[in-house]
Amino acid sequence: MQTAQRPRVLIIGGGFGGLETAKALAKAPVDITLVDKTNHHLFQPLLYQVATAGLAAPAIAAPTRSLFRHQANLTTLLAEVTNIDAAGKQVHLSDGSTLVFDHLVVAAGATHSYFGHDDWATHAPGLKTLEDAFEIRRRLLFAFESAEKEPDPEKRQDWLTLCVIGAGPTGVEMAGAFAEIARQTLVGEFRRINPHDARILLIEGGPRVLQAMPETLSAKALSQLQNLGVEVRLNAIVTAIDAQGLKVRGPAPAGVLGSVDYTIASKCVVWAAGVAASPLGANLAKNTGCQIDRAGRVVVSPDLSVPGYPHINVIGDLAAAFSHRPGKQPTAVPGVSPGAKQMGHLAAANVLKRIAGKATHAFRYADYGNLATIGHNSAVVDLSTPLGPLRFSNRLAWWFWLLAHVYFLIGFRNRLVVLMDWAMAYASFSRNARVVAGTLEKPEHVGES
Amino acid sequence: MQTAQRPRVLIIGGGFGGLETAKALAKAPVDITLVDKTNHHLFQPLLYQVATAGLAAPAIAAPTRSLFRHQANLTTLLAEVTNIDAAGKQVHLSDGSTLVFDHLVVAAGATHSYFGHDDWATHAPGLKTLEDAFEIRRRLLFAFESAEKEPDPEKRQDWLTLCVIGAGPTGVEMAGAFAEIARQTLVGEFRRINPHDARILLIEGGPRVLQAMPETLSAKALSQLQNLGVEVRLNAIVTAIDAQGLKVRGPAPAGVLGSVDYTIASKCVVWAAGVAASPLGANLAKNTGCQIDRAGRVVVSPDLSVPGYPHINVIGDLAAAFSHRPGKQPTAVPGVSPGAKQMGHLAAANVLKRIAGKATHAFRYADYGNLATIGHNSAVVDLSTPLGPLRFSNRLAWWFWLLAHVYFLIGFRNRLVVLMDWAMAYASFSRNARVVAGTLEKPEHVGES
Questions:
Q1: pTM for this entry
Q2: For the sheet containing A237-242, what is the strand order?
Q3: CATH number at residue B163
Q4: For an interface test with A, which of B148, B191, B410, B416 has the most A Cβ atoms less than 10 Å from its Cβ?
Q5: Which among A44, B24, B100, B240 would be 20 to 30 A from B176, CA to CA?
Q6: Chain B contact present for A429, CB below 8 A
Q7: How far is A199 from chain B (nearest CA, A)?
Q8: In chain B, which residues have pLDDT < 50?
Q9: Is A381 in the same domain as A329?
Q10: Which structural domain, as residue segments, surrounds residue A108?
Q11: Pairing mode of beta strands B230-233, B305-306
Q12: How far is CA A220 from CA A5, A213, A215, A227, A370, in A?
């Protein structure tokens, strides 16, 4: 068989980085195996919409296998990699079998980090997978259901206090969606409570929301959140989370110096504060001696390979990568999907360079800007153009955000479904996926912990 | 408060029966509480489409609360009823609280029955809830994924042997969908297996498929199934199910008298063979002394009330009800959604009769016929018309089935999404919901058992 002699390229992870690597190798004379522990590629920028009942899961997830149906040089496998034997050029899978490779691209992504407080996971789920999204949807919708049943006014308010920890793009989007659900979607549907009484708190340790954005846009986003009725607490550090709510250390009231500790009683808390790289980062560090940073990301060479292991590349959220431009200081690459895609593209090109015995290229990140949505008609956009930055907010920004996200959604059908769902939601403030498979007593999902 | 003096009507269950009761009382001077243990009304006739990855869950499920947003005399509660105190006119909920009523309509439906073999549930999930559908979807899709990874040809074939037990409408629809997935949807997506090699077996204890249908249509359905590549085993009794597959007692080969025992190695088995009424049937029997039949259904009075308890009505799949026509023998009402809806309508009317001190009406079932689909362009329809039965099959029947189901789907948005999903699936044989939230190692759902 001719194919048996072709170089074997193994890609771990079917996110933005892994997918781009695989696509870029579509016509190359290599045999690719793409391994992922789920059966789908997830369009993570819209995952918060699944969590907040705006979209059904299949609208933002496509079967990986189906995406590569026509790419004959690629085999998709549903499997979990537990160990990378860098010297032996093989990986071990959780079912005990192994896969050999000539070139490896590790694109295993990231998960949430509780900064050493893993027990918080039970009380404050994060948002990385579809399972996470279903769990948050369940907690959010069942909080209102439980409030409707609760005769004690104080306990009722605990159900109606919704907390989001972390004001990055995901936290801001979730807090905005929570506010719209309470203020618009659910209005008129309850007989004993008024969903409008729900408090939505967005708790951020830093001095502003959306810290990756310019200060002017952070300020815009803050006022848009406040217009939606979100209480934003800045410089507020969460010090404990349990089934009753949070403990927070935040600024003292105006006129008083220092900080104060206080508690927030809440039955629905969502974690959007920290990310940690996949455990495969630590595994690579153990097996290759490479460095990992505080978030567990692999410090890669300029060409995205693991130092001393040119046949192993690390990309996407698992890589602590730098952008290299001639005559300029290297700059850190942010953990966003365009970064992962661009790294995937370069990793594929460099694999082919190595096979051809040529020199590899250093990674250069093209930054097209940054955008985040807050709610109906509210968003902030910070574009990098050749003529300088272009910044705008409010309605135009929202439409820009919407079209950009729908454009980048993978697969024709998904785009259409998302557009249609949103067209109707836009007109009516309704949310079309307010469905929880489990019951109050028998949650549908196994917990994260 | 004036409303406090109005009669309190409690409805248990938000299926077809409960929903119809509630809607029929929309303008009545009563206070209605509708209790359901899930947050959604489920359009069960299309649940097999969620299980076979054709539709996303929200396309066939609508939040119950949302459906009654504008019905001011109705309060929706997410809760599970554990006991009906018939004499005390109250029900107990699983959270320890109680709800009082003046009139009760019990529409708690049915679940699957394993005929005393509850241990089979782990190996052969049934299809009644969204959780069930997700579990079947997971097993079905992961069977092909596991086959792709399996090097041993014999074990690979065990993954590719898909069994459906019971050839009623649900079993026939599922077997047909399984066959289309193997023969059409997945073609070209695997590199090591050929999905076409999958065997789909439909195992039925009786002498024909779709026994509620006329024999001619059963024969049509059988040949449509066989055209799709489904192996149908009639008069075949399942005697055991475990993780390796089934034991079956079926007819001996042609020319040999008697029956033979054989095993079918299979890693994906679905149960569509038996239904049992909700445990609230047995609870009512204990508390009121009423009769229940073998399936646990309450034997109701002609007006659908519990004998001796005129303020308690039982409808839908939980009722062993008869249709009463002047001058004719009472006939049993089949467990289908039109029956449940018609009972709901009468129960509402009879509640108002009782409040007004008038005589109640006996139930009369209007039978409009029966339909089932087998696959792409294949269905059988048996309509009751004033001019006599109208029976047809194949392509026209399929379109009739499709339009009837979409028409009866609740809510504008759902209809449109379903139509659109099907339009695309029809053209391409693709399935748009091939997404499983869990991984192989960490299933997303808690098992049924």
A1: 0.93
A2: A237-242, A245-251, A259-265
A3: 3.50.50.100
A4: B191
A5: B240
A6: no
A7: 21
A8: 1-3, 443-449
A9: no
A10: 2-37+79-112+276-355
A11: unpaired
A12: 57, 11, 9, 11, 14
